[in-house]
Amino acid sequence: MGENIVTVANLRETEYKTEIITSTKAFQNLRGEWNNLLEHSLKKSFFLTWEWQFYWWTFYEKIASEKQLCILMVRNEEDQLQAILPMYKAHVPGVLGKKLEVLFLIGSGHESSEYLDAIIGDFAEERLFEILLDSLQQLNVDGLHFSDLRDDSLLLPRMQDWAQLHGLYAEKRYWKTCPFIPLQGNYDDFVGSLSKNMRYNVRRRTRNLEKNHKVVFRKSDTMEEAEKTVSVLYELHRKRWETKEGESKFDDPLREQFHTKIAAPLLEAGYLRFYVLEVDDVPVATLYCFAYDGHVYYYQAGMEPELEKESIGMVVMGKAIEASFTEDAHEYDFLRGLEEYKFRWTDKTRDTHIVEIAFSKAAASYFGAQAKWRGMKKQIKKVMKK
Question: What pTM, to 2 d.p., does this model score?
């Protein structure tokens, strides 16, 4: 057993053993086992792949707050990996300035990671979930704050039942809404299912752009090109936001460094879908997407504002959706955000949630106080609207 892998005694007699990964080196060595388990997991998400999780950790480990790696793993008697709960510890200010040590899911914070969860094989026994959750109380932390959990995640319903069984403070609350398109049939059928106005606009705008210009829609296929496309993405993204009020959270030098760093590994793993729309040999729109297990995730876009009147955003999105049909994907996910343009393409949505559970009285006081404050702010907003 490595010095950075700690074996934890379970609360009941069992053939399973629980380990905690505390070093980046041990994390790095998990790639094959990790992705193999995810491939056979009861729930899958690109944001749970080893590549996204590992590179997120190595980049953001010491940014904003000091974090301590805490990946919980369960193995059977044959030493085969059965479950992974990717977490880190960080300190947060509690009531009266008291610091609390809280568990977070790797990927939460800094980047918009969606659909975080435990990774548990589809062969797992139900009691494996109990072992995983019971182990949380042995980590000597004040509580946990898990975000970006889908309603149908492995963790969310079981955590609520588990907290209630053990008499622990727990709160579940809405976090984000993610519109998505189920991909059935072919692209022409899909366009035909859109509203009459949208259907007309998609076809007419695409046809007019291709009639009046030399138009090329392509995918960045080499590592060097993928890294360069990150620069193009940010350049176009910034140009577009300069014409709008407010600011973009994506427009951040640290985030640009992260996505430049991760482009090559994601391309090598087959997850990256970096689409570029060229008009008269000039890149005017980019869509930054990921693909995993039949899902295409639209993450971010960059558009040339001078060509917005020609609806290049609609054109490039349509072509990306068409490309998803071509590779037999069964879902195109817009991820978080209630932007109006997403709902021109779909009326389907799913929500993500946050769950907080307190293990200490100090954490229960802090989480409870935060919940009351959120309730007060909602009431104030209602009054202001009236």
Answer: 0.92
